[in-house]
Amino acid sequence: MTELDLPMIVTEIAAELAAETERGQVADYIPELARVNPGQFGLALALPDGRVIAAGDTEVPFSIQSVSKVFTLALALGRHGDRVWERVGREPSGDPFNSIVQLEYEKGRPRNPFINAGAIAVTDALLSSYAPREALGEILRFLQYLAGDDDIAIDPAVARSEQETGFRNVALANFMRGYGVLSGEPAKVLGVYFHHCAIAMSVRQLARAGRFLAFDGRLSPHGPRAVSSRMARQINALMLTCGHYDGSGEFAFRVGLPGKSGVGGGILAVAPGQASIGCWSPGLNAVGNSLLASRALERLAERTGWSVFTAR
Ligand SMILES: NC(=O)CC[C@H](N)C(=O)O
């Protein structure tokens, strides 16, 4: 097989998407996110040899929002192992990320760790080992370690904005507390949840932070281990089946790689053995996933041949 010209592929995709006029809608239910300029686009690939290939707005920090759920899940699994699954399931929900409807039928146990209810339950699990401030410190340190970059922080304006308007998340947390699925006080759990969603990172940092998922739990194929290979495999499976909420089937069909989106417009995608991919464009499609980042990843998968469904 001929060697892929990744710098050219990445540059071309970034140029094509910068020129798009239809860019989706920025999330406006979190007022601070409504102010983000939808004209931005960035794509970064972290490769097995340590190189990062990037184009577009590669250094602009954006709100990672639900992409943070991948990292809190990894931390909670590392801390509590399979006991995490006592409070959250592993099935796609087929419902929007902030839906409450299944919770009543299913006795307050969220379908998976990537919908809001599930991620709030995972944050609650973390709080059985850490005080709120400590938990946020652990999450940030974990991301800094994974990305090899200390310059990753919480955006306080986004956290505040969400704290002031996150009524639906308050409902989800109280509902789960009513069923005993949350053990902590809802306000405390939500405080940590809102703050980890408000972490800001660039696509370069995100691509580097996701390397452990592309390389069997290690930061590079023969590098230091961050999580077990079993855990990396399991998180990838959940990203593929649940990472885009009720758009997960469509993303798997079009892109064919595990991915996790956030309403800030970011997507972390994983091409096992090949690359960890950070992509960002703030405008969202109808189900709350980045319109142009999804499109970019579809083109990247087509042009590289990367897919978890293809023999290589
Ligand atoms: N899909 C998302 O990124 C949602 C996360 C956001 N912080 C919320 O709770 O609504």
From TrEMBL:
Residue sites binding substrate per the record: S66, N116, E162, N169, Y193, Y245, V263
Catalytic activity: L-glutamine + H2O = L-glutamate + NH4(+)
EC nos: 3.5.1.2
One GO molecular-function entry: glutaminase activity
Keywords linked to the UniProt accession: Acetylation, Hydrolase
Statement: the UniProt record of this protein carries the keyword Hydrolase: yes
Top-level EC class: hydrolase
InterPro entries listed in its UniProt record: Beta-lactam/transpept-like, Glutaminase
Pfam families: Glutaminase
Gene Ontology annotations of biological process type: glutamate biosynthetic process; L-glutamine catabolic process
Family: Belongs to the glutaminase family.
UniProt subunit comment: Homotetramer.
HAMAP family xrefs: Glutaminase
The protein's name in its UniProt record: Glutaminase
Naturally occurring in which organism (per UniProt): Pararhodobacter aggregans
Lineage, broadest ranks: Bacteria, Pseudomonadati, Pseudomonadota, Alphaproteobacteria, Rhodobacterales
Gene: glsA
